[in-house]
Amino acid sequence: MQHITPILALPLLLMTLPALAGEAPIAHMPAHAKPGDFREYNNTLMGITCSRWEFTEVTDAGEVLNQCGDKTMVLSTDFDLNPMRISDGTGTTLVEFKPFYPQLSYPLTLGKEWSGEYSGYTADNDAHWDSKVNCKVEAFEKLQVIAGEFDTFRIACVDHWRAGLLFSGETHSTRWYAPKTFSIIKVVHDKAKWNTELVNYQIQ
């Protein structure tokens, strides 16, 4: 099986711009990456304190590996390049989404909606929860971040979560995907630990 090789924390994608004026933009999955390509964020990504995530390889199982210090992030070519887990150098799981966190669904188009279910875990507070996520591409707009100004797809998601028998609720988040950088460049979440912003990147 031939696998496609994106990066991130965020995936490397191919953006096909409209050939004719007035056509809606569309972002297809995905293009390719080379070892050494990276995304750098302002301190944290997916709640993990580590800023520069570098693409390393795609395994035979289709897992896309990105490294930051001793930490490894795993995305999947089978699941729209969405995040599955982050572990440290000892193999300890720091963040996990089973089977994956459905933050993106390709191709991205204005007005597209999707949903998905997952089980989540974060080691810093030993939290376990189950969630159903609903997302929608709300706009195609310009956004200024530390790394510069970009045209972006704005994606709004709502997590309907439950932890055990007694606790449940909703959390809201917004993500901006920039075709020029082939990545999500900003996340704003109800819980600040999940917020992030792109400060630098390299695509060879």
Brief descriptors of the model:
three-stranded antiparallel β-sheet; 204 residues; twelve-stranded antiparallel barrel; mainly beta
Describe the protein.
With about 200 residues, the chain is mainly β. It has strands at about 15, 25-30, 40, 45, 50, 50-60, 65-70, 70-75, 85, 95-100, 110, 115-120, 125-145, 150-165, 165-180, 185-190, 195-200. The model is unreliable at about 1-20 (pLDDT under 50). The strands form three sheets. It has a twelve-stranded antiparallel β-barrel with strand order 3-6-7-8-9-10-12-13-14-15-16-17. Helix content is about 0%, strand content about 55%. It has no helices and 17 strands. A hairpin with a 2-residue loop joins strand 7 (about 65-70) and strand 8. The protein is globular and about 45 Å long.
End-to-end CA span: 25 Å
Overall mean confidence score, pLDDT: 88
DSSP strand content: over 45%
Shape: globular
The assigned structural class equals: mainly beta
Q: Tell me about the biggest sheet?
A: 12 strands, antiparallel, barrel
Report the order of strands and helices. EEEEEEEEEEEEEEEEE
Helix residue percentage: under 10%
Strand order of the largest sheet: 3-6-7-8-9-10-12-13-14-15-16-17
Rg estimate, integer Å: 16 Å
Count of extended strands: 17
Low-confidence stretches: 1-22
Number of contiguous helices: 0
